[in-house]
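Blinded run. Sample ID left blank on purpose so nobody reads anything into the name before looking at the predicted structure. Input follows.
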Amino acid sequence: MPQRIVVVGAVAAGPKVACRARRLLPDAHITLIDQDDLISYGGCGIPYYVSGDVTDEKELRETSFHVLRDARFFRDAKGIDDVRILTRVTAVDRKEKQVHIQDVQTGETGVLPYDKLVLATGSRPNVLPVEGRDLDGVFTISSLHKAIAIKERIARGQVEKAVVIGGGAIGIEMAEALTDLWGVETTIIEFMPQVLPRLVDRTLARMVEHHLREHGVQVFTGEGAQRIEGDGGRVRRVVTPNRTLEADLVIMSAGVRPRGELAREAGLLCSPMGAIVVNRRMQTSDPDIYAAGDCVETLHLVTGKKAYAPLGSVANRQGRVVADNLAGIPSTFDGVVGTFIMKVFDICVGATGLSTEVARAEGFDAAEGMAVMSDRAHFFPTQALMFLQMVADRRSRRVLGVQGVGAMGDGLMARIDAAAALLPRRPTVDDFGTMELAYAPPFSTAVDVLNTAANILDNVVSGRIATVEMAEFLDWMDDPARHPEWLVLDLRHPREAEPFLKRFPDRWMNIPYDEVRPRRDEVPRDRRLILVCNAGTRSYEIQRFLVTIGIDNTLVLPGALNVARRLGPAWWPEGTAGD
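Blinded prediction complete.
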């Protein structure tokens, strides 16, 4: 008798399991079930559908050769025996090895027997427990249906002002979508002190925040929504502890949680947060039941702890592993390192592994190194600055994560992907410093930014460089009384330094980099010197020289003024580029 495989869930992991299992097991009887009528769509493309970059929602459901992935496609093109949309699985009977189903439209019930069951039930959005969350015009990004409804509302001219609650990746992407094409006056409010919390560190997050503001998106961090108010059942405003924001549309983007209820009710082992527990073969606590995608718990390969990674890319990789094991091909999914990249107007931000903040919270003695340099040869016409930060444990020198901001394109992604591939192997700073990477002037520099970040971090963990944190420097610029003994020694060209000398004559001096050695006697010995240039490289070199002549009261500003300018400080001289 053919093996009966039932797959519950048909968005990402489920279709991957069903289609690969069909290729490997031509005689199996495969059933694919989903409670929705829109299946196998690119959920991560929803913000780009709302923005208009993707013009029709069908494009999110099409193959690369423009065939719609609907029930007919999976039956006729992929050979799945039984595709049931608008069908809900209400229970799993492990003893009888059958699932109880219900037609969403008619209410008709039935049972389906299985030999092997696959749960790919996905995730659901977190709905904040605030007053007014049920008002018309309050949305979560939970399905393609919601995205269609949002876009239709905007297209009808019903939305002039929007509030996005949550400054994570999806919240930022939705804010860009609303602002860029539609001109909606959009505000992000984020409960944590920064956007992209736990994904990137404060400095890079502030660069993203400033870039959002430059493109017309208001950003308020450290604020949560207290309540949502409306008139006549329609949303009208969002109230935080500090302000009231008018809104015709509210999007809750406060993360997601796994849909593990079906598994838990069937007696399968689930995590405290409700994710289904699986082994490396993606088997649940019942060896005849597998699970994959946003509904499962996985392993973080840097911390060694359990993790949750609701990404379509992860779901597809896990789905392949499930199908292999169903076909008797030993295959494992070992875990994740937590890799992401996203577009923010005309820049991109990405990370892999741990941020400094998270690494320290996990018990590592974390240090960081920031490289600011061209993403390709500085003489190549399309070069642009890339800001790449590497995090490592001081004692072991093990690299824990890499994060960065760069111009839109593939440059940053190439470096993040290279780091992601190496992180599971517990690499050291030295491994990254000597890592071989492709080089040609249109693509990279002879010493790549990834190598340079490692070299800078090597200097940090080896104690060869003394630095001041960017946040502390900015606080001092706003309030010089914090460190009255500090003095900036600007190593740039006099034309670059002049606006700063005029604005801060009592705490800013200039000796160009190539004149410090012959003018060494002019370097003050009675002040704490903050060495600045555009990227930090010249500052480090001069710090090393000054030590040799007995001047060791210096601090280097990592990332230097190229970073500071992109944080949008109020004191920055108008019209000064800085890079």
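Unblinding after everyone has recorded impressions. The mean pLDDT is 95.
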